[in-house]
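Predict the assembly for these two chains.
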Amino acid sequence: MADLSCKIAGIDSLNPFWLASAPPTDKKYNVVRAFQAGWGGVVWKTLGIDPPVVNVSSRYGAHHDQNRRLLGINNIELISDRPLALNLQEIRECRAEWPDHVIIGSMMAPIEERAWKDLAQQIAESGVHGLELNLGCPHGMCERGMGSAIGQVPEMVEQVTRWVKEAVDIPVFTKLTPNITNILWSAEAALKGGADAVSLINTVNSIISVDLDQMVPEPVVDGKGTHGGYCGSAVKPIALNMVAEIARAPETRALEISGIGGITTWKDAAEFMALGSNAVQVCTAAMIYGFRVVDDLVDGMSQWMDDQGYTSVDQFTRKAVPQVANWNELNMNFDTKAVIDPDKCIECGRCHIACEDTSHQAIAMNAKPEGGKEFVVIDEECVGCNLCYHICPVPDCITMEPVKTDKPYMTWPQHPLNPMRDAAE
Amino acid sequence: MTTQQAKPALQSGQMSAGAIADNFTDLHPPFSTLQAMAESNRCLYCYDAPCVTACPTSIDIPSFIRKISTGNPDGAAKTILSANIMGGTCARACPTEVLCEQACVRNVAEDEAVEIGSLQRYAVDHLMARNLPHPFKRAAATGKKIAVIGAGPAGLSCAHRAAMLGHDVTVFEAKPKPGGLNEYGLAAYKMTNDFAQREVEFLLGIGGITIEYGKALGRNIALGDIKASFDAVFVGVGLGATNNLGLAGEAASGVDDAIDFIEELRQASDKSTMPVGNSVVVIGGGNTAIDAAVQAKRLGADEVTLVYRRGPENMSATEFEQELAKINGVIVRYWAKPVEIKANGRLMGMVFEKTALDDSGKLVGTGETFEIKTDQVLKAIGQKIKTDDLAGMEISGGKIVVDDTYQTTAPGIFAGGDCIKSGEDLTVQSVEDGKCAAIAMDAFLKTA
């Protein structure tokens, strides 16, 4: 079995799977159960300055698919609503009882130097391996000038990170909000402030649904609703892009990354790591199924590593980053065509109607003499968009096959049809 | 159309070889990837799941199904095999409709369980097809020697777990091939493509297990001798004898034990060479009776009648198996018991007396009889333990007595499988017995 141990921000972890700062890491009881289940570490639910916040009742909304599987959750819960001293005492106990497991203290405070420094020192003294600065919470706390209210202003991200780095000598993770226009600005600010790593993404600002009987956004709190933080597998693509952007930008690529955002399976985790994450954090999958989801994360990743011949996680960490390019660097002469395997086709007709109505009219639907239908790709019309390949319900029935060509690699800046074509080419 | 001609009894080839071959392909064809993905996504990944409780080997079913759904079928297979090294056979042969699938929570709302058996087969077949190194490692050698008597599911499961725990194992098997009822007893359409042998080969991949064939208790080995040369012994001899009808003429040609018929059929590489009667009568109400009746029909017997002395609700064959008999054209007659064999050197017919329950609930003959003309009777009225060679241990109610660590009343001799009274006489229960006995023997050897 492959070695899953990893290192991030100088912290050694048994495996790259940590629970993110959220309800699953609210107290010792949960954290002990998580370690028993096999999680390598936890980021403790965000600690603030006493008195603790007070939460409302009715806190989560849900985005289901038609089979009532949860694709995403949004929440309007605030940070830890337990006294700071109690949390710190429990952290101390967990550190003593689980010395090989990582505990990171998540924290937030108003934009005042003393507040950040005092809180950071108190948490550091509890023995945590590192601190994570919650600059991302997009609901409730931002109305009090915290969370994303700080994370959306790069200068404040830098300032807060610097304050904490000045106050403590343990690794600092700056947690970034996706509710911005360009993730690189806040990532760069964190780097300038001295962050050892960035954690991303925090939840996406959202209204998840509306109760049409009450005419109130969900979750409903006594006749009213508010926007909340969206998480779960639905946000994974947003997170993957932001992780990759930071990992490949010259200004930010030095940052280590704790990847977060809808990680549900081992494959999701491997993708985050291939695109630049040194380790990952999970929340929603555990909230849906319990801490035991780590079993598949560990087992599936090591099985895959064995199959691929990887013996340690650093052998594939960031391995896909060099292949993330700007659109302008793609080969305009690449051509791929859909191929439909008639033996696998179940004649549902969806490839045809999708292509006919919304793409390039490149899949003919013909009646077969013996009865039934056949679906045939018209190569001259197929632009290789992949739509049919993605919507086909049968695995490997539609494949995309690159067309052999002698044409050279040609980017858009080099393309003869580009009116802005570089004269020097 | 060819003219129907009277045939002499017990001929082979009552159907074309091609038709017979078709009749003995997989009863439940294996899942395609598409089916496995769709079905695995029906699983709710329950916590403290009832399907796990219902499985005699306690396979972590929700976890293995989740691994299939996340694209990790080999990890799923390891989850299965860590609890049940014969997960491949159990996926094919388990009466899942009364075990895991009966407990599936999907039954409650939708009346449609997740097809756990087929998913299990998908995962295990996926792993076995890859010919990877054996997935389990042996613990450091203990220097202890364990003897296992019988290379059936209980014995092999015990041997595998004992080898895994670091012991060296010698298995003594009476027959020329390993597998026990997996090889000789299950219906051919449940165990296609020589699966029993492939599974044994896979299981032996753990190392540290030697099998000696042609070694039978009482014939050329004795329990006392074995006990003297090993640190512990596991007896997994199954049920070696069959019950008789107790009627005159039972030795007539054409009156056979159903298990012998099933065994001969399993061993026939070309099923079309297997002789079968024109009019076959099967007596019994268990899964063996169904296996014999359905296979006789699928071999081309004109008429197969299954006769059982009580009603359908009393049959030990599951509802699925009873249904299988009916859709294969087996005539089922309830509430009748055999009273006379009509034979003239060769079997001619069988007389049955109708039965009923009297006021006290006792099964009695009504006096009314009927005769079925038959040229082959297959008896499936139960098996029993051969006690002659098991001197020194207590046997009660036809089963070897064991304590809760599977130890018999003879110290250092453990037992499991059909020869003890644990759960049902099923492959899966035997695998569990063998596994648990190996763990108990390991503990025994550490304290001995």
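The radius of gyration of chain B is 23 Å. Chain B touches chain A at residues 33-34, 37, 41, 45, 47, 63, 66-67, 70-72, 74-75, 78-79 (CB under 8 Å).
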